[in-house]
């Protein structure tokens, strides 16, 4: 059954579907970067509210700023912006069609359709998932990188920007000029203090071309911090086939684990849906939840995916079946990461490690090590290096974390231990590969990437541990290095 509005009532009975009249939905949210995660997470929460007869004036309009978004736009418009979500629990499967998205804006150079839509008064939230590395952060200072070519372009061409942030600034300029109230900017990426990061990017970019507008945005817009959590693999042939097995011809189905969490700071300048009625948490302690999730889950993903790539282990669940990789995760998480993370209400750090262990082990989730290890140049500084710095400051062990960094350097050399090639897997792959190859003669060459490691190359306890593990990986193999760490 081809998925579209007209066929919803003909779907298999076991498949949940919208019970609200989608023709009566009106928009309130523009979401930029509409990938699998958004559809399985934020769009699902809104859909569930709509199922209760609520939030029908908060429907989502999808958007993108890069041409590769056009393929997803075409797929979703073909099926009236409906998405099949397939929940994969370890021992069960269920499916639900969600309908909270009602349109997807045309993607054009200069982003005029996006700017014009965000400038309309019915849009009260502009949300985004553009990956952790997409916020133009100077890695050395953690401030705004105003030298990036895209930012330079947007500062000189504020009415025809390249970036999502330039489009937001342009839309807010139009709203201010017309007397329309501002909207909330909601970041849904895995960044500590993600709302603060988004504020820094938007306000700093605006200041380059219009300081008065920057002050207006900073004073009147809100940028709530949030933490999002669910494991959502990429869609490939097996996911398409799974939807077909359920009787649904969906061009872009999404599989996901049987877990979701959304923790949000309640700071919305133009109102918001009551997401808390369907399981989201509003709290002043978003940072605590963020830190636990980013350090243990996102950091844990790097702990296992990098060795998995080097050792030709294809999925995260397979990594958890690999004795050495599984035990590496357990020891690093329990002894080097979790002790440095504060618990949150209702969840100890050990309980969270146990939960993550179970989620990573779900054999139904076909999440590839390659996907999880992607963009290490952003993910290691965000997810691993903060734990290293805390461990050094507090005098706790950083041996396992140094081993993970050495394994990442080994991965970036570009080959697996079985001799197969690792295709480019990072925006800065060429630089990483060159560094990794040079590090075979001098391991500390890798740590001289100040944009990633800052001054950690000058910390003997970390630099020496890194060099030891990197040399051992090349001389005896990664499995021998992991075994040595586990035996210590």
From TrEMBL:
It comes from the Bacteria. Keywords: Oxidoreductase. Coiled coil: none annotated. Residues 28-277 form the Mannitol dehydrogenase N-terminal domain. Residues 285-468 form the Mannitol dehydrogenase C-terminal domain. The keyword Acetylation does not apply. Pfam families: Mannitol_dh (PF01232), Mannitol_dh_C (PF08125). InterPro entries: 6-PGluconate_DH-like_C_sf, 6PGD_dom2, Mannitol_DH, Mannitol_DH/Oxidoreductase, Mannitol_DH_C, Mannitol_DH_N, NAD(P)-bd_dom_sf. Transmembrane segments: none annotated. PANTHER family: MANNITOL DEHYDROGENASE 2-RELATED, MANNITOL DEHYDROGENASE DSF1-RELATED. This is Mannitol dehydrogenase family protein.
